[in-house]
Amino acid sequence: MIAGVVGAALMAPLVVFYARSPALVVTEVPFVTLYGEERLKKDRASASRALFRRVKPVLVADGVSPDMVILAIHEASRRPRCVLFGRSQAQAARLFHEQFPQILTIVLSGLIKIPELPPPDDFLCIYGTDRAVDLYRTGLFAGILGSERRKPAQKTEKEAEKQPDAATPPANAAQTYVFWQDRFMPEGGRELFSQGVKEKDPESNAIFINLATQLPDTKVIACITLTGVGAEYLERNAAVPQILFGWLDPAMLPREVVVQLDDSHWALAVPAVRMAIKKQTEGKIPSKPLIFSLKIADNNIFRMLEKSAKKMP
Questions:
Q1: How far is it, in rounded angstroms, from Cα 105 to Cα 83?
Q2: Mean pLDDT throughout 71-90?
Q3: Where in the chain is the domain with CATH 3.40.50?
């Protein structure tokens, strides 16, 4: 009898987990290819644990009609707790909300407001990417990584002569932090990035560029942050730590990319669902920083980066 009671107690959470309505995430097939299938499986499992309910992808072809998206949603679940859409599926999200106004519809709009969506209500939640917080945290990351680059330069003159390193600035030289900006730079964004850099490397400066010809000499660059418009720099393989805004599968990135800021609908699914369930119908969510520990030799640096990933300006 005791064993039966213990077994029932152990099984109860599992029963509750599967009894709860799932959260569905509309996911285009090309996204899975670039995001990484194994990575998506891990995200799905971690999101299910965090929300204590099943989180299921609804796979749809690129460019499929909104009606077909809604059909795919019904095949996944007749009564989901919520359905999360990325910006590219805004039309499908609007149609779903019109047809099923009592099911939570969540749209992650990224950095652009979506004109085809109606105003948020109790069952339509629209969240953007908090680029301001991202920029501050990126400044912190860059300052930490740039400070780390000073260490090889702090050699004796004799050691430096034996092992010259053209890419490493002199130990006491002012370093430059490059941010390759795009059109989504928010008001005050430059100041937030610079603030983060200064907190970790007070003697250095940050510059903002949008053309390759504006890049300074590699010798003085401590770290470079790339947005979508600066992606061509990835092909240059310069021996400078890089921070990337994007959601591409990390396996496809150069070894110099140490931190990636991901604002895809899978990266932000957990905070988005939690906000929607709490009836916070609009707002902004910071990107999810991916810190690649295998590219960082110093555990202390890794811990500092992890701690900075939670800081607010």
A1: 5
A2: 96
A3: 2-129, 131-262+288-308
CA distance 155 to 240: 19
Q: How many residues does the chain have?
A: 313
Distance CA 54, CA 263 (A): 21
What gap in Å lies between CA 190 and CA 187, rounded to an integer? 8
- pTM tops 0.85, yes or no: yes
Q: Is 21 left (phi over 0), alpha (psi -120 to 50) or beta?
A: beta
What is 131-262+288-308's CATH topology?
Rossmann fold (3.40.50)
Write out the two tokens for 71: 């059909």
Give burial (CB, 10 Å; 0-12/13-18/19+) of 69.
Answer: buried
| Mean pLDDT computed over 98-109 | 97
Average pLDDT over residues 175-190: 92
Compute the radius of gyration of the chain from its Cα atoms: 23
Q: What is the pLDDT of residue 235?
A: 66
Q: How many CB atoms lie within 10 A of CB 277?
A: 15
**3-class SS of residue 74:** helix
> CATH topology for 2-129?
Rossmann fold (3.40.50)
Reported as a single tens digit per residue, the pLDDT across 281-311 is 999 999 999 999 888 878 899 999 999 999 9
pLDDT digits (tens, 9 = 90+) for 30-44: 999 999 999 999 999
